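quick one before i forget lol
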Amino acid sequence: MKLRFAPSPTGYLHLGNTRTALVNWLFSRRYGGEFILRMDDTDLERSKSEYESQILEDLAWLGLNHDHFYKQSDRLGLYEKATQELKASGRLYACYETPEELDLQRKVQASSGRPPRYNRAGLNLTEEEKAKFEKEGREPHWRFLLKSEDVVWNDLVRGEVVIHAEEMSDPVLIRADGSPVYTLASCVDDLDMDVTHVLRGEDHVANTAVQIQLMEALSGKACEIQFGHTALITGAQGEGLSKRVGSLSVKELRMEGLEALAICCLLAKLGTSQSIVPHVTMQTLVDEFDINAFGRSAPKLSTDELWQLNGKILQLMTYDQIMPRLEESGVTEVSSEFWSVIRGNIEKMDEVQGWWEILYGDDTYPTEETEFIGGAEAVLPEEPWDETTCKAWVEAIKLETGRKGKELFMPLREALTGRIHGPELKDLILFMGREKVLERLRNARGESNESDAL
């Protein structure tokens, strides 16, 4: 079993084509197959090395390792060989229309209610007419002659698909500059690399019909590749995702602090009948992968859901799992108790540094609630402290100040951490210890241990 992901290095990976890469990777790993990464860089004008480097970096960061890597720009000889074979068999023919002439042809067809289909004028050109065009400086583009027959396959997501090829336009396979388009290069490569499954978005359904005919023309036998076309994901408002405008690019989300596993956990289940839940290993996603779970309706992607998932994944990580990440971010010499206290209150890794500074640092958090904090300080239990200490302290504060609920907890938490939300108070004070809690309370109301001692 062999699957492939063939991005074009003309922009950054966005979550739409990342999902395609992930689905192919999960399928290959689920069934012990091979995953091919193939750069579709035959469009020399728009392909950029910086995009290629970023795609490689993003895929590696996501954990989508490949077994084989190819660049189509290194395989031009194979495409030229296929081109000559198609010309010899009469399936590839020269066309000399300019872009303006083709645009006019489409407008005439549209005005008469006909679909935009190439009129095959190139098939009827005489050698004299071709020579005349070339004398004018026109370079031909080459189109693949489709057979007027239905193309049928059993789609892994959509079930039986029937495409009426006679309603389609003969596709261009060779540009006027002599370079092959994706359709030709992809088919040649899929055959040469023995690709067995092609999973991609439903916007490629019509392309699949063309490619099946093309691969059969090249191989001389029925196409054996299994195809699956997933519904396209959209943004929260139903808008499409475009790599060229950087919409939800992996690079951008990574810079914002999103975890690779959050992206993978969401995209692996988006548009399926399976629940989207946090996992801390890719292997769990591999074990749960089921191509039959994908539905036909277009799923919407919410960045809010991504960030919620991000926090849940971090909260599931053990101290041993998170420690290398803490060291990477410069947070060192922290205990497992520290991670246990804060893990439920972070959405992304860079928030760990903030909590490290709060719990280990010497900052003070002044408050206007000096009378209340003074009352809380007055009934602060003596050590030793245990799991019952917080409850006893809170009850004593209620009796001392008459407060309860948010009016009690929020100013107390703010005096200790400078924040109104955070770890549970019982965990927080146990971690800090009586001396630090007392110091924070006194500093919050403008007094220091030194002044108290005088």
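fyi Confidence is low (pLDDT under 50) at residues 450-454.
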